[in-house]
C-alpha cells in the first residue's frame, strides 16, 4: 500500500515535490497550461489582492543574460476579490478535475484586515490551502513602500490572530511565505550585469521572533522560504536601470530572484527548520533551476520546492518535470 504523502497539510497522490510558485498563474488559461504537466501535484495560484491590480508601467521583468538572476516589478497584477468572486471556484474545480491540488496566495498591500475577505474567498472556492504572502516587497503605491509583514512580527501576530478569531475551526491549511529576512531590508542595492553574488546578511534575531509568532498558530502547516530580495536596482553595462520607467518607483528597483539569492534562501530554510515546530513543513523557493538546487533545499529539511524564475525564463511547464527528474534520478537514489 502506498504511504500517504502530505505537504503542508495537503495530501498528494504521487511523490513529486517540485511546484510552480506564486507569480505564475493568475487566471484559468495560466492554470490550464500548468495542468498540461502531469507530474505537478500542487500548484500555486496568485498572489491575489483585495482590489484588482493592473501592474506597473515600463519594463517590469528582466532576465540576466548570464542566467544568474531575474528582477521584476510586476506588482502583483491580478483581478482582485471582485474579479475572482465567480471564477476562483471554476479554477479550483478545473485543477481538481486534473487530480491536482491548488494553493491560493493572498496578499495585502495596505491593511492586515484585507486578508479576511480574501481568505474567505479562498476557503469558499474549495482550494486546498491558502498561502499568505507576507513577503511581497515589490508593491509601491504612489511611490510609497507598504509595510512588509515578514519584517514586522507584531503585524504578523495581529493578522494571524484576526484570522484565528474569524475562521477558528473552519480554517483551511495555511502556508506562510516569508521575505528573504536580511538586515537593512529596504536599502537600495545595485546589481550589475554579470554579477553572480550579492552581499547581504540574514537577520537571525528577526527569524527567531518570526518563528515564535508562527509557532503559536497551529493552523499554519507550512512556511515558504523565500520570496524575492526587494529594493534591487539592476543596471546594464552603461549604468542604465533595466526596469521602468515608472514614476511611482523613482529608484527603478524590483525584487531579485533566481540563482543569485539561492544560498540565502537555503540558509534561511535551514535556520527556520531549527526554529519552527516540527509539525510545520518548510518549502524552499529561490533559485531552483535543477536537481542540485532542489537537493540543496531538501538537504536542509524542506519537504518540497517552488519554482518561478526558471519557469518564466524557459516559458514552458515542462521545466517542473525536468527539474524533478534530475532531482529524483540523481539525488535520491
Ligand atoms: C515575475 C515574478 C512574479 C512574482 N509574483 C509573486 C506573487 O505574486 N506572489 C508571491 O508570493 N511571490 C511572487 N514572486 C516570488 C516567487 O514566488 C519566488 O518566491 C521568488 O521569485 C524566488 O523563486 P525563484 O528564484 O524560483 O524565482 C514572483 C516572482 C517573479 C519572478
Structure description:
By secondary structure, this protein is of the alpha/beta class. Helix content is 33%, strand content 22%. The protein is built from nine helices and 17 strands. The strands form four sheets. Strands 3-17-16-13-11-8-7-4 form an eight-stranded parallel sheet. The chain has a five-stranded mixed sheet with strand order 5-6-15-14-12. Strand 5 and strand 6 form a beta hairpin. Helix 4 runs parallel beside helix 5. The longest helix is centred in the first third of the chain and has 18 residues. The protein is globular. The chain starts with a strand and ends with a helix. About 2% of the residues have low confidence. Bound molecules: flavin mononucleotide. The site of flavin mononucleotide has 27 residues, from strand 4, strand 6 and helix 8.
Tell me the radius of gyration.
Answer: 18 Å
Distance N terminus to C terminus?
A: 21 Å
Shape summary: globular
Beta strand %: 15-25%
Average pLDDT confidence is 94
Name every ligand kind in the structure: flavin mononucleotide
Structural class: alpha/beta
Strand order, largest beta sheet: 3-17-16-13-11-8-7-4
Question: Roughly what percent helix?
Answer: 25-40%
Q: What's the count of strands?
A: 17
Compressed to H and E, one letter per element, the order equals EEEHEEEHEHEEEHEEHEEEHEHEHH
- Helical segment tally? 9
| Largest sheet data | 8 strands, parallel
Uncertain residue ranges: 137-141
List the helices and strands and how they pair.
Layout lengths: L4 E3 L2 E3 L5 E3 L7 H8 L6 E7 L12 E3 L6 E3 L7 H18 L3 E6 L8 H11 L3 E5 L6 E2 L2 E2 L7 H15 L6 E5 L10 E4 L11 H12 L4 E6 L3 E7 L18 E4 L1 H17 L5 E5 L5 H9 L4 E4 L1 H6 L3 H14 L2
Parallel strand pairs: 3-17, 4-7, 7-8, 8-11, 11-13, 12-14, 13-16, 16-17
Antiparallel strand pairs: 1-2, 5-6, 6-15, 9-10, 14-15
Helix pairs in contact: 1-2, 2-3, 3-4, 4-5, 5-6, 7-9
The structure holds flavin mononucleotide.
Flavin mononucleotide binds next to strand 4, strand 6 and helix 8.
